[in-house]
Description:
single chain
Amino acid sequence: MRTTASAVALAALLAGACPAAGAATAPDPAPAASAATAAARIPDLTDDRGRVLTLRGWNVEDKTHRGDAALSAVTERHFRDLAAHGFDFARLLVFWDDLEPVRGRYSEAYLRKIERVLDWARAYRVHVVIDAHQDVFGPAFGHRGVPEWATRTDGLPFTPHPDDWFAEYFEPAVQRAFTHLYEDEDLRGAQAAMWRVLADRFGDHPAVLGYDLINEPMGEPRDGEDLPAAARRIEAEQLTPMYRRLAAAVRAVDRDGWLFVEPTPIVGEGVPTGLGRIDDPKVVYAPHFYSTAMEAGADYDPAAGWIEAYEAAVVAYPRTYRVPVVVGEWGPPNSSLPNMGRFHRDALASMNRYSSGWAGYVWCYGGGYCALDAEGRFRANKGLTVAPYATAVAGEVRDEVHGPDAYRVTYTARPGATELSLPPSPRGWRVEAEGRARPGRTEVPAAGRATRVTVRAVPGATVTLHVTRR
Length: 470
């Protein structure tokens, strides 16, 4: 996420260096969007039974508390409320500086706190991706992430920007710290060892789906390099080898978890990533979905073509390397502006075309980016993220149509159970199956909580499930 001044600065850095997005014309809003065409060559995320997964959820975090108080702001309520609205996914932020405050000494207390959060997720059937989060590298620059002992700046300057934290990524000391993390052999080993600790401890936890290896990685441009060129070089020459190292570290202790890899945040400006192949059978491409203009406080402009430019850039990597996509963060800081309803509908339709899911930013109770207010009610337009969907499909998905009041999926059945998540609805839901499936029809009564419906079909049969509000 970016604050106002830094978003403006980023836009200036990118001016003239990115393809113009304004030439595209946004489509008219529609109540539902088919995912079949754009996602035809992008693989699906799957579970350990081979079922096609769709993740819908939010980031869960505590950036404020550290040490003995770490993760104290994350409570069971977070997961109870996620499940109550039909969400099945949380991207859980954890911090290397809390895990290893002193080099080589890992905090057992912090590991227990993470485990407690994962136990809540398990109780409410929420999949979790553990995210090794950093903002502006870490505590050496007043933020969270990489420990101070692993921060090397070569004495380069750092000027804080109290009202514009994202601009601090462009400070010379911060950029040099990233270079050392990527290039210094001992820091490479320390980062890999940190991931072995996490994966060894939580790889068998039933709630853990996988690991996001580093949040929003940045780097150091070279003289004369514009920002898009720098991003592609950093991704190709530094991030790709880093992800390969970290994948090997995780696989030494966990063969099953999905590995989520992120490009630099510059992808949000419609710049295709320079990441290379990560040689692992369970890699997920996990870009973030933020508009510079909206992060700077502007309303959504459907005619600007930003979503179309972003989508065109994002799908290139998963189509080339045959990996699923899950959007790790998205959502505007001010969702109450006049066009934000249209933005949420357009953004959800776009992600449904190419991704296996998303995590909104952020599941908390208050203002700013929070999904909910202090009383637990959705803030303006955030409730548009609630919709029926299939959390798991036992079969090959042929077609899928999403909407807030209806959902349809057609698939060729395999052994196993297909599961539907139906959010709270004043009059309930109707589920009807075409094909050799049971039950053939289900009436879900009105309830204050989400409901899950399980459907089983004859293997090989073509089945269509229709979900509609009663």
